[in-house]
Amino acid sequence: MPSNSTTETKPARQPVPLAARLRKQTAIVSRWLHIYLSMASFAVVLFFAVTGLTLNHADWFVSQQRTSQRSGSVPLEWLPPAAKEPAKLEIVERLRSAEKLHGAVSDFRVDADQIAVSFKAPGYAADAFIDSHTGKYDLTVTSNGFVAVLNDLHKGRDAGKGWGWLIDASAVLLTLVSLTGLLLLFFVYKRRVSGLILAVAGGVFCWLVWLKFVP
């Protein structure tokens, strides 16, 4: 008995144009980069946002500053004229251990009658003045508080090369987050024009503030 069933053939799928495929892939990659770069740089963005505010209002935290005066001595044999050259390493390590100092040595200056040694760290400074004839020193230690530490880290002041590299990496991350966010805007057709207008308006506003209020 003959069958009345007929075989339906599906229409052939039309090939997707290269431009459309590139556009879709660009949107996917941009969204992926924007999401994960944003998460990776979340702590960085939060840190620089908060410290930008505290840095702009450093006078709010002046009361946190603490200054102490100390005194002591180092062996005369480490100093001229007993020694041809001052024993820099021994002097620095003696000051560190005796006075519990931290930070990097930012200056070691030798004058006719005095040696000055300075230690610097974020929110911290210690300056010792050593009498070359007696070996006695006067030390001033200034600690500016936790907020000052954060402010100096924001600026990269006295924080060392490693922290400087972190700031550079943060700048690259934030640049990529900004650019991928801008790129994503071009794929949101309903919001593209308004988004671009707001971006331009924000830039113009900053420029006008600079012209009007910056001396």
Describe the structure.
It is a single chain. Helix content is 50%, strand content 18%. It is of the alpha+beta class and 215 residues long. The chain has 2 domains: 18-60 and 149-213, no CATH class; 66-143, Roll (Nuclear Transport Factor 2, Chain: A), CATH 3.10.450. Strands 1-5-4-3-2 form a 5-stranded antiparallel sheet, covered by helices on one side. It starts with 17 loop residues before the first helix and ends with a helix. The mean pLDDT is 86.
Topology:
Elements: H1 18-40, H2 42-56, E1 66-73, H3 88-99, E2 104-110, E3 114-121, E4 124-131, E5 136-143, H4 146-155, H5 160-185, H6 192-213
Antiparallel strand pairs: 1-5, 2-3, 3-4, 4-5
Helix pairs in contact: 1-5, 2-4
On the 0 to 100 scale, the average pLDDT is: 86
Provide the number of structural domains. 2
Q: Using DSSP, what is the number of strands?
A: 5
Number of separate helices: 6
Strand content: 15-25%
- Give helix % range: 40-55%
Q: What class, by secondary structure content?
A: alpha+beta
End-to-end gap: 99 Å
Radius of gyration: 31 Å
Uncertain segments: none
Q: What form results from the Cα inertia axes?
A: elongated
Q: How would a textbook summarize the main sheet? A: 5 strands, antiparallel
Spell the H/E element sequence.
HHEHEEEEHHH
Strand order of the largest sheet: 1-5-4-3-2
Protein name: PepSY-associated TM region
Organism: Granulicella rosea
Keywords: Membrane, Transmembrane, Transmembrane helix
